[in-house]
UniProtKB/TrEMBL annotation:
Transmembrane segments: none annotated. Pfam families: RAG2. This is Recombination activating protein 2. It comes from Myotis petax. GO terms for biological process: chromatin organization; V(D)J recombination. GO terms for molecular function: sequence-specific DNA binding; zinc ion binding. The lineage of its organism: Eukaryota, Metazoa, Chordata, Craniata, Vertebrata. Keywords: Chromatin regulator, Metal-binding, Zinc, Zinc-finger. GO terms for cellular component: DNA recombinase complex; nucleus. The gene is Rag2. The keyword Protein biosynthesis does not apply. InterPro entries: Gal_Oxase/kelch_b-propeller (IPR011043), Kelch-typ_b-propeller (IPR015915), RAG2 (IPR004321).
């Protein structure tokens, strides 16, 4: 975080899959630099990491937590290619769930440390993650090994004292089964989950409100939107959060 107003907003970019089936393990920090009212420029710097560097992946989450005046990036989940020793000609582009490790990334010093938490047994991808202060909530996701979308709800808390960080995980009840959903924030203590899939070829048409009160999380269904016929009949949909409770949805033409 910079001292200037224009440098306070930063974006972390990590991983991803290209059309050529290449995976990236690079990590970038992008900041908005406003020169004047008419022109906005971006500054993008690659972060070289040392330690337990997360392998190249896609379908993962990366969030930032804040504790005791410090911040740390948290990488979890995703998919990657099977290890090179197991790759044959037939299996060259075969992907598998990444190990369910939690990575803490210090963006200031470029250090990365992985944590093995007993509550996280299975690799997950395309889950929903919500970061609030020193805590991240992991919802849903898809397990490639079992081909299921378990109704997960994990709470991962990160404490950043002067010494080594402490990371702990709690399994919470009341999770939902969904993958590839879009999360948008509607106010300080409320989020909405839109879209995604409940089965491989079945879109999830129900939306959920996630509300926080006194560090308690509640997930409930909300009134279903009046989906247009082309959205109802499409097999595939995708989109992103546009901020302030607005979601952009697309379907193949």
């Amino acid at each position: 975080k910079g001292g200037l107003e224009s440098e306070r907003q930063q974006y972390i970019i990590h991983g991803g899959k290209t059309p050529n089936n290449e995976l990236s393990d690079k990590m970038y920090v992008m900041s908005v630099v406003c020169k004047n009212n008419k022109k906005v420029t971006f500054r993008c710097t690659e972060k070289d990491l040392v330690g337990d560097v997360p392998e190249a992946r896609y379908g993962h989450s990366i969030d930032v937590v804040y504790s005791r005046g410090k911040s740390m990036g948290v990488v979890f989940g995703g998919r990657s290619y099977i290890p090179s020793a197991q790759r044959t000609t037939e299996k060259w582009n075969t992907v598998a769930d990444c190990l369910p490790h939690v990575f803490l990334v210090d963006f200031e010093f470029g250090c990365s440390t992985s944590y093995i938490l007993p509550e996280l047994q299975d690799g997950l991808s395309f889950h929903v993650s919500i970061a609030r202060n020193d805590t991240i909530y992991i919802l849903g996701g898809h397990s490639l090994a079992n081909n299921i979308r378990p109704a997960n709800l994990y709470r991962i808390r990160v404490d950043l004292p002067l010494g080594s960080p402490a990371v702990n995980c709690t399994v919470l009840p009341g999770g939902i089964s969904v993958s590839s959903a879009i999360l948008t924030q509607t106010n300080n203590d409320e989020f909405v989950i839109v879209g995604g899939y409940q089965l491989e070829n079945q879109k999830r048409m129900v939306c959920n409100i996630i509300s926080f009160e006194d560090n308690k999380i509640e997930i409930r269904e909300m009134e279903t939107p009046d989906w247009t016929p082309d959205i109802k009949h499409s097999k595939i949909w995708f989109g992103s959060n546009m901020g302030n409770g607005t979601v952009f949805l697309g379907i193949p033409g």
